[in-house]
Amino acid sequence: MFSKSARLWLGLIAAASLLSLASACGGGEKTGEGEKPGETGKPYASKGDEGTISGKISFTGAAPEAKKIDTSADAACTSKSPSLMTEDWAVKDGKLANTFVYIKEGTLADNSKVGDYAFAAPSAAATLDQTGCHYKPHVLGVVVNQNISITNSDPTTHNIHFMPANNPDWNQSQVNGANALTHKMAHAEVLVPVKCNQHPWMKSYVGVMKSPFFAVSAEDGSFTIKGVPPGKYTVVAWHEGGAKGTEKTMEVTVPAKGAGTADFSFGATAALSGQPSSLQMMPALEVPMGMKH
Ligand SMILES: [Cu+2]
Predict the structure, then answer these.
(1) Could you tell me the distance, in angstroms and rounded to a whole number, from the CA of residue 41 to the centre of ligand 1?
(2) pLDDT tens across 61-82, in order?
(3) Cα 15 to ligand 1 centre (Å)
(4) What digits encode the pLDDT tens for the residues 217-230?
(5) Could you tell me the end-to-end alpha-carbon distance of the chain, in angstroms, rounded to an integer?
(6) Fewer CB atoms < 10 Å away: N or C end of the chain?
(7) Residues near 78 by beta carbon (within 8 Å), at least 6 away in sequence
């Protein structure tokens, strides 16, 4: 049916397609082809009529107590932070800190979609410091491709490890006194868990956003998202608490040069009204001291 040379060609074609399949599954760097549609768009131009979205994050019911972290694996941590506490629930007077609030989607007054726009990354780097063997801040937001400057203020070695789902894994050791490291991520992702391979208790979360419309709640639970064009938005508040994080959603209208309000409530009594989280958090990988990638 097939000549000898046709069979040879068919064999070669089969081998080549197997090879290309294998490389596609290899999980290498993302190519332009894999670019998420969210990261491209028409450049956003301010009309000067932007407003704000602000609110308070509450915690209802008995607040989970912070626990003391056993830092005995590294004497440098113990001496600098003798009573280091867990930060997964930072509740004070019924208000919740470290909640990442952002515009997920929405329609501007001129009927365009917020997701259709591309926003330039701020030229100033965001900072993430390792101090007292914890991350400061605990929750950080950046725009796609914005630099994150990572510093080590401790008399010990840290090994910062970004564990994204849509961006390449990134893992760097940083000794005491080393220059700041710089990292950026090209794809939007809410949120990227960050850990230290040296100190398993060290965790932080970095929201990588296409737009600059995000904020992190302060100690008094307050937040403000600035520069929001007038429109109708779906605003999400994400908090790391719970097995996989917890997400709440609200519709907010921002009038021209006006203010929209978005108050969210987390905690035992608020759990029933909450939306199930779509975010599958990675389980914390506990890496023993002295092991580095
Ligand atoms: Cu560390």
Answers:
(1) 38
(2) 998 899 999 999 999 999 999 9
(3) 46
(4) 999 999 999 999 99
(5) 55
(6) N
(7) 71, 72
